[in-house]
Amino acid sequence: MPRQPFKTSWGGRVSFSIDVITSSLQLVKAGKLKALAITSAQRSPKLPDVPTIAGAGLPGYEFTAWYALLAPASTPPDTIKRLNTALQKSLTQPQFVKQLKASGAQPMAMDLAASNQYLDREFAKWSRVVKERNTKVD
Average pLDDT, stretch 96-125? Predict the structure, then answer.
């Protein structure tokens, strides 16, 4: 059963929300939410008629939620390799990949070097945004 993240004090109504597709897809499919745009650079295969935010009029906008398996920096390299091998193997299991895709997720199998490069790019991008916007934690 999908979680219900949109509990409000306004009689169950949401004026606006940015949410990950994996938690809102079922609500959109059920007609309880209207998807206005997708935040990634490409449209979602699960909502092919929903434009990207960039395509809907805000050029350059892109935000992609991602999940990664991380370990402390002190983790021995052989342990990291074993974890990565197990993760890569799970992403070759058709049933697992099918479940991920059914939820709206797009699996991205990466080796350690590629995942480190991806994280470095993401951290650099969002660090710039935080600095440029002078974002502070309350």
Answer: 91
Structure confidence by residue, pLDDT tens digits, 51-76: 999 999 999 889 988 888 899 999 99
Q: Work out the number of other CB atoms within 10 angstroms of the CB of residue 122.
A: 13
Query: Distance between CA 3 and CA 1 in Å, rounded?
Result: 6
- Place domain 1-65 in its CATH homologous superfamily: Periplasmic binding protein-like II (3.40.190.10)
Give this prediction's pTM: 0.71
Q: What is the pLDDT of residue 18?
A: 86
Tell me the HSE value of 101 on the side-chain side, using a 13 A CA sphere: 9
The residue ranking higher by pLDDT, 1 or 80, is: 80
Structure tokens at 100: 């991920």
Q: Cα Rg for the chain, rounded, in angstroms?
A: 18
At position 128, the amino acid (one-letter code) is R
The residues spanned by each domain of the chain are: 1-65, 77-132
Distance CA 56, CA 89 (A): 37
